Amino acid sequence: MENSKVKTIGILTSGGDAPGMNAAIRAATRRAIGKGIKVKGILKGYDGLIHNEIRDLNGRDVSEIVRRGGTILYSARCMDMHTEEGLERAVKTCRDNGIDGLVCIGGDGTFRGAIALSRRGINTIGVPGTIDLDIACTEYTIGFDSACNTAMEAIDKVLDTSTSHERISIIEVMGRNAGYIALWCGIAVGAEDILLPEIYDYDEEQIIDHIITTRKKGKRHHIIINAEGIGHSQAMAKRIEAATGINARATILGHMQRGGSPTCRDRMYATVMGAMAVDLLAEGKSSRVVAYRDNDFVDLDFEEALKMTRNLSEYEVDLAKALSYNISGD
To answer: Taking the chain, what is the end-to-end CA distance rounded to the nearest angstrom?
Structure first.
């Protein structure tokens, strides 16, 4: 057992849930216990922190959750964290429960809340948990791999029926304003068009021309992967069907992408990140985010991390287009 100035930590999951969050909770809990640190689970994210919805966690409480999707601590969005009163209540809850440090698992909104608490004297460590992969400081976020696999498998099934009916299928995937899920799934299923919010110019005539061209070359179906940040898939399908005379259908995959058993990668990376968050707190560090960069797990300053930016890979975007356009028949 290691000695640590940190005696009690709290763990919370905030914002959208992501497969693998439970693996991070399990790792953080058992890592802390192994260091002689007590663990408190904070229910419903920052909302639960403000309203003192807290329970003790032991090693048995987190048994067999590594394979489960969602989060056993539940999650919620909390507008009160944007107010001074809400922040002060959150700080008071930590003080009242003897919480020396927080492991905050979530996306950029979660991290902003953690930074605000850190400025008020609460030790915080962030763990990136979001299916959107939209946290620029890290090349991996918990849940992305599972969400991509769930979406890919669903798209494969839609492709089967799309081929049978020789139709156009517009399949909308999640990701908020980031196109990573759309790009990865589009390449993985061999989609004819991938619409990404970072670069889409809303030129439907180009899509229509592509559909007509590939149909003339013998292509009997057409898959369009549409990112959530663009949306309006149903209306798009109606316009494209009217313009081409080809049956078009929209499928919105929705929140199924958040659920399900996490992949091996999500379980493994989430476990390392959860344990590392506790290690950082035990070392007396605060206002840090655990990140995966250049094939290694590192910790970065919270505020500096949130200032970082990242763009989609131009090569991957160009490759997706090249592979879908270069079909036989000329």
So the answer is: 70
132 is catalytic: yes
Among left, alpha and beta (phi > 0; psi -120 to 50; other), residue 281 is: alpha
Q: Identify the sign of the CA torsion 318, 323, 325, 330.
A: positive
3-class secondary structure, 170? strand
CB atoms within 10 A of CB 269: 25
Which residues, listed in sequence order, are joined to residue 300 by a DSSP beta bridge?
289
- Backbone conformation region of residue 294, classed left if phi is above 0, alpha if psi is from -120 to 50, else beta: left
**The pairing of beta strand 8-13 with beta strand 38-42:** parallel
What's the CA gap between 274 and 109, in Å, rounded? 18
pLDDT of residue 181 exceeding 80:
yes
* Burial class, 200, CB count within 10 angstroms (exposed 0-12 / middle 13-18 / buried 19+): middle
Cα torsion 208, 211, 213, 214 to 10°: value is 170
The chain-wide mean pLDDT, for the chain, equals: 94
* pTM beyond cutoff 0.85: yes
Check 132, 134, 279, 299 and give the catalytic one: 132
Max Cα-Cα span within the chain: 73
